[in-house]
Amino acid sequence: MSLENRIMDAMKTAMKAKNKIALAALRAVKSELILTKTSGSSEEITEADENKILQKLVKQRKDSATIFSEQNREDLAIPELEQAEVISQFLPTQMSEEEVAKVVIEVIAQTGASSMKEMGKVMGIVNGKLAGQSDSKTISSIVKAKLNS
User: Fold this and answer.
1) What pLDDT is stored for residue 1 in this prediction?
2) Gyration radius of the chain over CA positions
3) What are the structural domains, with CATH classification, of the chain?
4) H-helix or E-strand containing 5?
5) How far lies 84's CA from each of 62, 65, 143, in Å?
């Protein structure tokens, strides 16, 4: 079943349950998918593209929640976190930091990277391998730690 069909099914369920937060999150995902489809590129949206869209939406919600929390607006932060949780359900299972570290070490060995100057090259390969399975922030911190050691 495609992501779009799963989103539509979840939207129907959220409407029946009158879950406004889940419905808002799912509508945002559907909107982003439609925008991507109609952006002019003739290519189909791949699963990797769908995962990037979902990760972007989750990151936006979490960033907004952080800002709201800093401004002592928990009434706005909580719904953002709940929406991020709803969207996260459609992402593939996330890898643990240990699993990501194994992939990073493997890529560093393959590329022969030894300094921070080569971080971009390592990041590009690792992000390609782990598309949707880990966020860039986690990957970046692990790559930095491994290249600095």
Assistant:
1) 66
2) 18
3) 3-88 (1.10.1510.10), 97-148 (1.10.10.410)
4) helix 3-17
5) 7, 9, 26
Contact 68, 74 (CB under 8 A): yes
In this structure, are residues 87 and 50 in contact, taking their beta carbons and an 8 Å threshold?
A: no
Q: Please state, in angstroms and rounded to a whole number, the distance separating the CA atoms of residues 95 and 104.
A: 12
- Which of the residues in the chain have pLDDT under 50? none
Query: For the chain, what's the residue count?
Result: 149
Are 57 and 87 a contacting pair, CB within 8 Å?
Answer: yes
Question: Burial level of 131, CB count in 10 A (0-12/13-18/19+)?
Answer: middle
pLDDT digits 0-9 by tens, 21-35: 999 999 999 999 999
CB atoms within 10 A of CB 29: 24
- Judged by DSSP in three states, 2 sits in coil
Q: Whole-number mean pLDDT of the chain? A: 88
Q: Is 138 buried (19+), middle (13-18) or exposed (0-12) by CB count in 10 A?
A: middle
